[in-house]
Design brief:
The chain has 148 residues and is α/β, with parallel strands linked by helices. It has five helices and six strands. It has helices spanning 12-25, 56-64, 76-84, 102-117, 130-147, and strands at residues 2-6, 28-33, 45-49, 70-72, 88-90, 96-97. A six-stranded mixed sheet has the order 3-2-1-4-5-6, sandwiched between helices. A hairpin with a 5-residue loop joins strand 5 (88-90) and strand 6. The radius of gyration is 15 Å and the shape is globular.
């Protein structure tokens, strides 16, 4: 099992939780981004820098992910592809994407895209909070414990 991170937009707090989890559990952590990343020195933590462009990091993750891997992403289409390949997906706010909720999330994303394209200001997600950080840490711990 590996943990893959769609790292361009992942909050620093989430990355720090993941660094500690990788060392604690011995699970390899791979952060994929369009830009160079600073990570703690560890044989378990590595980065992959992909070229700039739309969905380049997402496409790399989809190509590499294997059944049983966990992907950390807020990108709903990426999460859907990961689930289709037998992986698991968790967003940085602690929500686990599942076969039961991913289609609904995709439909809502497409609806919001349509609203934005028609000029409606839909706002963005709220700022990443301490509660989000705790929800992510708790869900990650539950997931990793269930894999043992």
């Amino acid at each position: 099992m590996r943990i893959w991170v769609d790292a361009d937009a992942a909050p620093r707090a989430v990355k720090e939780i993941l660094y500690r989890a990788a060392v604690r559990t011995g699970i390899e952590l791979v952060l994929v981004a369009n830009q160079p990343l600073q990570v703690p020195p560890s044989r378990l933590i590595r980065t992959v820098q992909v070229g700039a462009g739309f969905d380049v990091a997402d496409n790399y993750i989809v190509q590499q992910v294997e059944p049983g891997d966990l992907v950390i992403t807020a990108d709903i289409p990426l999460a859907a592809e990961v689930l289709d390949k037998g992986g698991a997906a968790l967003n940085p706010r602690g929500e686990r994407y599942t076969e039961n909720n991913i289609r609904q999330r995709l439909n809502m994303r497409d609806f919001m895209d349509t609203l934005r394209a028609s000029g409606v200001n839909t706002g963005g997600p709220p700022a990443f909070s301490q509660q989000d950080r705790q929800a992510f840490a708790n869900q990650l711990d539950r997931y990793l414990a269930a894999q043992r």
